[in-house]
């Protein structure tokens, strides 16, 4: 028979806070550039969105209507797709592919 497992619930000397590596962003980051290879299929630079005008959107089209259970794994499955999380166009190819939609269930 195996021995009962044992371990300290809390470290006797407290938790090690580690090294503080946080670097606050500069007050004015307008001169900072991020270089991303244009051929990269993992990273993609996005153009800035237009500033929200404060108005709500009305009469938008419904993209998909799902049936039954819908979790974040259904919306965007993990696995090999995670390597594209920095590339909006490529991660979008994974969007909703595992959901039971009303169209596919009928």
Number of alpha- plus pi-helical segments = 3
Categorize the overall geometry. extended
Encode the helix/strand succession as letters: HHH
Quaternary state reads single chain
The averaged pLDDT comes out at: 82
Beta content = under 5%
Distance between the termini: 54 Å
Number of strands: 0
Percent of residues in helices comes to 10-25%
Can you summarize the main beta sheet?
none
The poorly predicted ranges are none
Radius of gyration: 23 Å
Report on this structure.
The protein has 106 residues and is mostly loops. Helix content is 12%, strand content 0%. It contains 3 helices and no strands. It has helices spanning 72-75, 88-92, 102-105.
List the keywords.
106 residues; little secondary structure; 12% helix
Quick summary:
With 106 residues, the chain is largely without helices or strands. The protein has helices spanning 72-75, 88-92, 102-105.
Write the layout of secondary structure elements.
Layout: H1 72-75, H2 88-92, H3 102-105
């Amino acid at each position: 028979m195996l021995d009962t497992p044992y371990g300290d619930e809390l470290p006797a000397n407290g938790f090690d806070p580690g090294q503080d590596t946080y670097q606050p962003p500069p007050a004015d980051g307008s001169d900072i550039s991020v270089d991303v290879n244009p051929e990269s299929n993992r990273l993609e630079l996005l153009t800035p969105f237009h500033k929200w005008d404060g108005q709500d959107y009305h009469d938008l089209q419904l993209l998909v209507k799902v049936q039954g259970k819908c979790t974040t794994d259904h919306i965007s499955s993990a696995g090999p797709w995670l390597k594209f999380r920095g590339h909006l166009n490529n991660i979008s190819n994974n969007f909703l592919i595992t959901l039971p939609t009303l169209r596919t269930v009928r």
